User: Fold this.
Amino acid sequence: MASHSVLRLSRSAQIDSRYMPPVFLAPALQPFLCLTTSNTASQATSHHHHHHQHHPFSTTPPLKIRLRNREKNKSRGVSAIRRTGPRVPLSMSKYPLPEPVWDPPSRKEFKTRDDHGLWGFFNEKRTAMTAPEDLDAHGRAWTTAELAKKSWEDLWTIWWRCVRERNYLATEANERHRVAAGYGEAESKERVAEVVKTMRRIRDVLRDRQYAYDEAQNIVDTAEFWREEIEANERETREDDFSPLEGEESKHLLEQLKGQRPMA
Assistant:
């Protein structure tokens, strides 16, 4: 029994026979033999598991036998960010590219007309932003009673004046947000609120006028209908009062009168 244990130890640990321990030391080497055997088994198990991890089960064919797809994107590799350019060279000789002007004095200055429509997006002073005290210096909104007395042309003028006011206030709000000015926002909102009140009241006045026009049109249509009905009834009444018998009787009476006329 001891000789078998020593033999297994030599095989598992791969010990040279010259360094084999004596037979009487076999019982003392039994724990070492068990530890060596367990390590060998664990290494074999881990190697087997690792082998299965590298080769999992799959129904997909290996990459080497897959068919290589042809490139379908004709614009692949063309990037404006990386400046790769198009694959096919293009001819631009017909349209020469503009050259930048590096000398400021030689640059062309554009003069804008004073009545240009884009000036409507700026204030009267044509500055980028209005001072807060100037924004706060505004009147109240138009009342409905005041707008009801205005003509169509006056309402049109007030409406488009409000539109221009909102345009330049919105332009200044964007510029104020861009430069992070930190002032004028509260005054601008108050002014916009007054302009919006006026525009809403103009719509109310126009709506009231439309309702009044519709009611007047209904009254006129109703009066025209009843006038035609009355005229039709009168014509029917006159036709019923005149009968053919009265016409024959009057004719017979005239003949009698002719027969009774004295002879000259």
